[in-house]
Amino acid sequence: MVSVDLLDVASLLTDEERDIQRTVRSFLADRVAPHVPGWYEAGTFPTELVPELGKLGLLGMHLTGYGCAGTNATSYGLACLELEAVDSGLRSFVSVQGSLAMFALWRYGSEEQKSRWLPLMAAGEAVGCFGLTEPDHGSDPSGMRTVARRTSSGWVLSGSKMWITNGGLASVAIVWARTEDGVRGFVVPRETPGFSTRDIHGKLSLRASVTSELVFEDCELPLSAQLPSASGLRAPLSCLSEARFGIIFGALGAARTCLETALEYAKTREQFGKPIAGFQLTQQKLVDMAVAYNKGLLLAVHLGRLKDAGKLQPEQVSFGKLDNVRVALAIAREARTILGANGVTLEYPVLRHANNLESVLTYEGTSEIHTLVLGEKLTGLPAYR
Question: Which of 30, 176, 234, 237 would you call most buried, defined as having the most Cβ atoms within 10 angstroms of its Cβ?
């Protein structure tokens, strides 16, 4: 297969980063990729994969200690790229587990909370979810209605969260609620009385992923359930920045698969006596897609280097999430046109990726919100308040 890395971006990576990327890609090609169309069509997530992902070191891989791999951020990004090259649902699982639930515990949890949950989650023996979005409050989490009331013995949690990846699988939920002292985070194990989940069905996107509603009905928690170092909305928003970073790379994985699929198809599909890759309009589509993909890859590696240096800013994460996702979605749609009618079947991955990317475009901050984040950075005026 011809490489679509026209700028030799791979040469910018270290040997270790390339080895990690190759290892993840090889595992997914052998163990996962052949089964994804079936999982997508059935609307199921392969829970049997979770311990294997843990064994490979992919869960919380950019965190240190507690059984986590401790890789650099760029390596984590490259792993996300390979995961999403197979399916966005698989990358979403890893992102939520490592960059939302595990990161929240690692950054804001007590030593007792970290020691109890992080080793299990890193090994894939426990699944986590992250409860921030609510039915009526997505882009504006400051309006959340879930509340935690202080009692003499602990907390009582009431409310609901919506569109929560991994919710129905989770052994533990990291839940954000309004208290008398502002927004706080809580560790809610699955078996807690009053805590239940309802999976969301009928999805046309991210079908090979579990998406759920979390319901808290006078859910009693001990004092030790609170994340001691999390105060205000800055805490959950910092977790979202971690997850968005993975998306910057991950979306390009979906784009690469679509581009490679369209390129190989165009070289073998004949019309008017020759492969359609030999026609000028098809070559223009392929070139435009390849140029957009390579620019996105350069952006991702640059932001990875900033993150590894401790210099990455939230606005730069918004830049990467905004542009790389919309570029990936445009590539998926254009690739579908090259495949013609074949592009709408599960025999080829392009429309599955396009459908998945519609969700990626929305979650972890819509394109509108990230546009306004950058608008505020440029003008100093917050248009969304």
Answer: 176
Q: Which residues of 315-342 are buried (b: 16+ CB within 10 A; e: fewer)?
A: ebbbbbbbbbbbbbbbbbbbbbebbeee
Nearby residues of 363 by Cβ (< 8 Å), 6 or more positions away: 163, 165
Digit-coded pLDDT (tens) for 205-231: 999 999 999 999 999 999 999 999 999
Element (H, E) at 257: helix 234-268
* H/E segment holding residue 335: helix 314-339
CATH superfamily, domain 234-379, is Butyryl-CoA Dehydrogenase, subunit A, domain 3 (1.20.140.10)
- Within a 10 A sphere around the Cβ of 376, how many other Cβ atoms? 16
Whole-prediction pTM: 0.96
Span 243-297, pLDDT tens digits: 999 999 999 999 999 999 999 999 999 999 999 999 999 999 999 999 999 999 9
Give CATH for domain 128-225.
2.40.110.10
Q: Where are the beta strands (DSSP E) in the chain?
A: 128-131, 147-150, 154-165, 172-179, 182-189, 195-199, 211-222, 270-271, 274-275
295 contact partners, CB below 8 Å, separation of at least 6? 327
Q: State how far the Cα of 283 lies from the Cα of 213, in Å rounded to an integer.
A: 45
Q: Which of the following CATH numbers is that of domain 9-122: 1.10.540.10, 1.10.760.10, 3.30.70.141, 3.40.50.300?
A: 1.10.540.10
Angstrom distance (rounded) from CA 192 to CA 131: 15
Chain centroid to CA 2? 28
* Distance between CA atoms of residues 330 and 205, nearest Å: 16
Helix (H, G, I), strand (E, B) or coil at 149: strand
Please tell me the distance from the alpha carbon of residue 267 to that of residue 299, in angstroms, as a whole number: 29
